[in-house]
Structures are given as C-alpha cells and as structure tokens.
C-alpha cells in the first residue's frame, strides 16, 4: 500500500520564507491624490500671483508718454474683486478637497492663469508701453468705459439680434425637420425633393437677400428668411440621412405588433434619427449666425452687427471691440445651450459616444 511521503513544511520553515514586499503604489494609495493636490496648489499660487500683479501694474505704472501714475480705473476694482473671489474659492477647496468647488477649481485653474497673463500683456502693450497705439488698439479700461457709456444701446441691439435669430433659426429648423422627415420616409417625396435640396441648399444664404427683399413685404421678414434658410439645409439633410438609416428590422417588428405609420414615425424613425438631427442643429447654428450678421447690415435697423458696422464708420474702435466681445459671448451662449439640450436628449449615449 502506497503512502504519501510528501514532506510537509514546518511552521518554522514557513516563517523563515520571505514574502514579497508590497509595492510602493500599494502601500501609498494616496500618492496620486497628493500629486494632484500639489499641482492644484502650484496652479492656484500662480493664479493668485498673476491677478495680484495685474492691479499693481494698472495703479502704479505710469501710462505711455505720461510722467504721472495712472489713476485707479474700474478695471482695478474688477481685478481686485476677482482676486477676492478666487481667494474664497481656493479657501473652500482647501477646506474640503473632495468638494465640487475643489474639482471645479482644478479644472479651470489653467484658464484662470492664462487670463491673468493675457490681461498683464494686454495692459503693458497698450496703455503702459504704447507698443499698440490707439485708435486701433485700446487698453482694457477703455473698453470698460466704452461699455459703461453705451450699455443701454448694446443691450437693445443684443435683444434685437437674439429675437431675429430665434425667429429665423426656429422656423428654418422646423421646416428643415419636416422636409428631411418627408424625404427620408417617403421614396416618392425623396425622388422629387432631394434634387431640389441638392440644388438650392448649398447656395449661400446671404446671396438670397436681394431676392428676399424683392419678394417679401418687409425687410425684417427678409432678414428672418435668410437666417432660417441657413438652418433649413443642414437640418433637412441630416434628418433625411437619420431617417433613412433606421434599421429595417425595427420597422418590421413594430409593424408585426400592429403599429401604424404615425406610430412608426413618432416612436421609431424620429428617436432613431435624433443624433443626426442634433448634428443638423449644430451645423445650422453656424450658418444661421453668419446669415444673421449679413441680414443686419442691410435688412434691419438695430442689432449687434448693425452696431459694429455703425461705430466702425465713426472710427470708434473701442466700441467696435465691445460689440465684438458681446457678439462672441452671444454665440458661445447659444452653443453651450445647444450642448445642454443635446446632453439631455442623448443621455443614453454618454457611455457610447464622447461629446
């Protein structure tokens, strides 16, 4: 009879064997957190230094060609206020490193540093050293003074541009949605409409302004028409592509369960084409804004583009720059709002597509 002669290890022998030492990353799981905290502290210190140096430059350094010190400007108060806000923000992040304030601060600190460096260079090259001479270039405080003296007209022009854009963009997007849906769902409609879409759609919206002024009763309606035309073509194209790309087995399965045509359109075709439709909205946003700028130069008597062209005619470049800044802020607001809508409607895609 065979017996197990396999030697067994004694407790002493097992104790004498050396176990592998854990790695340094296993013993120090907080190392990445410490590195992130150190990087955040460095960025924060740099930001505080830059935004502390900026008001000192504005107040203490003399202007170009002047022997006296520059007076305190509203921009100094603005920089001081932002410095206080940044300090309070940093204090909240320091007291609670895992809070939303800390993560938000870590995300925006590079932009805060870039803005501080940009304002210092801007101030030095314009009013302090005179490298960029007026009237074509202006210091930050000059732009603030121009906005303070003309803010009522600027807000009125912003409201007029926003209203014209909303009317034209909404009408063009809705018309483009129904046009694309009709072409994507009906082959007969696609036969007749798609060649027209390919022929008329690529025409720049601004080139149709003389025809719109001739056919429509008012200049405001003509301006709204070309803004809407800029949104109509990309919306119709992308909606058609999205509807035609719906999988046929989805439609066949719904029809097997008794779905009618209206149900197939509302619950199958439109939800499946929603990502393409939102792409059409993004594309139409840019073309509609370009058409808006052209329309305001000839079709309306108030708006941001009208204001920029008006002050440029008087060679008032600081007010022109203020109008451009407000126009950029308006366009960015529309883009961010559209991204929010897209994130809400396509929440189910967040783990599938990066956007």
From TrEMBL:
<keyword id="KW-1133">Transmembrane helix</keyword>
<feature type="transmembrane region" description="Helical">
    <location>
        <begin position="42"/>
        <end position="61"/>
    </location>
</feature>
<feature type="transmembrane region" description="Helical">
    <location>
        <begin position="162"/>
        <end position="185"/>
    </location>
</feature>
<protein>
    <submittedName>
        <fullName>ABC transporter permease</fullName>
    </submittedName>
</protein>
<keyword id="KW-1003">Cell membrane</keyword>
<keyword id="KW-0813">Transport</keyword>
<dbReference type="InterPro" id="IPR000515">
    <property type="entry name" value="MetI-like"/>
</dbReference>
<feature type="transmembrane region" description="Helical">
    <location>
        <begin position="73"/>
        <end position="93"/>
    </location>
</feature>
<feature type="transmembrane region" description="Helical">
    <location>
        <begin position="277"/>
        <end position="300"/>
    </location>
</feature>
<dbReference type="Pfam" id="PF00528">
    <property type="entry name" value="BPD_transp_1"/>
</dbReference>
<feature type="transmembrane region" description="Helical">
    <location>
        <begin position="320"/>
        <end position="339"/>
    </location>
</feature>
<keyword id="KW-0472">Membrane</keyword>
<feature type="transmembrane region" description="Helical">
    <location>
        <begin position="205"/>
        <end position="233"/>
    </location>
</feature>
<dbReference type="InterPro" id="IPR035906">
    <property type="entry name" value="MetI-like_sf"/>
</dbReference>
<feature type="region of interest" description="Disordered">
    <location>
        <begin position="1"/>
        <end position="38"/>
    </location>
</feature>
<feature type="transmembrane region" description="Helical">
    <location>
        <begin position="105"/>
        <end position="124"/>
    </location>
</feature>
<comment type="similarity">
    <text>Belongs to the binding-protein-dependent transport system permease family.</text>
</comment>
<feature type="domain" description="ABC transmembrane type-1">
    <location>
        <begin position="158"/>
        <end position="338"/>
    </location>
</feature>
<feature type="transmembrane region" description="Helical">
    <location>
        <begin position="136"/>
        <end position="155"/>
    </location>
</feature>
<feature type="compositionally biased region" description="Polar residues">
    <location>
        <begin position="1"/>
        <end position="11"/>
    </location>
</feature>
<keyword id="KW-0812">Transmembrane</keyword>
């Amino acid at each position: 009879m065979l017996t197990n002669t396999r030697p067994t290890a004694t407790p002493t022998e097992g104790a004498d064997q050396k176990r592998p030492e854990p790695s340094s990353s296993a013993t120090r799981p907080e190392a990445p957190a410490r590195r992130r905290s150190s990087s955040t502290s460095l960025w924060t210190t740099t930001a505080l230094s830059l935004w502390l140096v900026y008001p000192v430059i504005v107040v203490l350094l003399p202007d170009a060609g002047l022997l006296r010190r520059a007076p305190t400007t509203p921009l100094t108060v603005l920089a001081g206020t932002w410095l206080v806000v940044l300090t309070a923000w940093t204090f909240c992040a320091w007291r609670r490193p895992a809070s939303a304030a800390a993560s938000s601060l870590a995300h925006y600190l590079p932009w805060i540093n870039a803005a501080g460096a940009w304002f210092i260079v801007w101030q030095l090259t314009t009013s302090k050293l005179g490298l960029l001479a007026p009237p074509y270039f202006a210091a930050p405080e000059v732009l603030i003074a121009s906005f303070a003296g003309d803010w009522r007209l600027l807000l009125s022009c912003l409201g007029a541009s926003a209203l014209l854009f909303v009317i034209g963009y909404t009408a063009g997007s809705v018309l483009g949605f129904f046009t694309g849906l009709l072409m994507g769902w009906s082959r007969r409609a696609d036969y007749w409409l798609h060649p027209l879409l390919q022929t008329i759609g690529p025409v720049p919206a601004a080139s149709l302004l003389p025809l719109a002024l001739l056919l429509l009763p008012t200049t405001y309606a003509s301006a709204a028409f070309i803004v809407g035309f800029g949104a109509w073509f990309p919306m119709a194209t992308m909606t058609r592509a999205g509807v035609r790309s719906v999988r046929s087995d989805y439609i066949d399965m719904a029809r097997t369960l008794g779905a009618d045509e209206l149900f197939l359109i509302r619950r199958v075709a439109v939800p499946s084409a929603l990502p393409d439709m939102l792409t059409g909205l993004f594309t139409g946003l840019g073309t509609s804004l370009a058409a808006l700028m052209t329309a305001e130069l000839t079709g309306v008597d108030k708006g941001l583009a009208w204001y920029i062209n008006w002050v440029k005619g008087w060679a008032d470049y600081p007010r022109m720059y203020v109008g451009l800044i407000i126009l950029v802020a308006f366009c960015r607001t529309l883009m961010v709002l559209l991204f929010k809508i897209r994130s809400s409607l396509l929440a189910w895609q967040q783990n599938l597509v990066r956007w």
